[in-house]
Design a protein that fits this description.
With about 270 residues, the protein is mainly beta. The chain folds into two domains: about 210 residues, no CATH class; about 40 residues, no CATH class. The protein contains three helices and 16 strands. A hairpin with a 3-residue loop joins strand 5 and strand 6. The chain is globular and about 60 Å long. The relative contact order is 0.16. InterPro entries: PLXDC. Belongs to the plexin family. It is found in: Membrane.
Length: about 270
Amino acid sequence: IQTLPSNMTRIVEDSGKYYIWRSFGPDDQHTRELWVDMGDLRHGQVRLHGILSNAHKQAARVVLSFDFPFYGHFLRQITIATGGFIFTGDITHRMLTTTQYIAPLMANFDPSFSKDSTVQYLDNGTVFVVQWGKVRLQGREKDGAFTFQAALHKSGTISFSYREIPVALAHIGSADHPVKAGLSDAFMVTSSTAPAPGQRFENFTIESDKIQNNSAIEFTPLPTCLQLHSCELCHSADESLGCSWCHVLQRYLNMFKSSFRRLIYKVCDFKVLC
């Protein structure tokens, strides 16, 4: 894999076995296919977020029109940040950049610097796309404007598309703001009855040299408990999925990734399974 040219596909699995990712260079046809033309009405109505397009270090909550599967649980609300990422947590806080993010390029962007800088999004029922257009780094505005996208597909696929990247990630600097590209999820198990209670993290970091002008990254989700809709399917599933069927809620529960993750040990008796 190390000998492949930079414009060829790479396939890597994260440690949690939730995604396979592929990187595409400027010469790949799929790079052009993944880019969403926000001016093409066939993709759906585009919304220009006025506050985010004219602010620095701001975030706004958006409700999706579909349930988006992320790391083995469903999301219906996300938070778009001016800093080039989407926050997936339930409650916004000062540690927004630490975990629970979908980050095509997290950095200290300041859309308020120029009227040309915009944060736009669209949702057509099958894909949700956020575009950070012509945004510049605060204090380094002369370095040029960045334009990139994050697309969340109803199938669970995530794609990052990069049109303009004037500065390599390694040269951006993270003194004033974290610089990251990738996925992260986390949750807290606080019940004393839970096995090994505490905080859990899943992180997937993209190699910085894969992010350049006219490049793209695509994350394909691996099978999880979300595909199981009955006790019988749960019982026969691969044990590596880590799921259990809850008779009380009449649905699967991933003991580490369910959207009910803060309540499952209180609601369900995991000794009474199929």
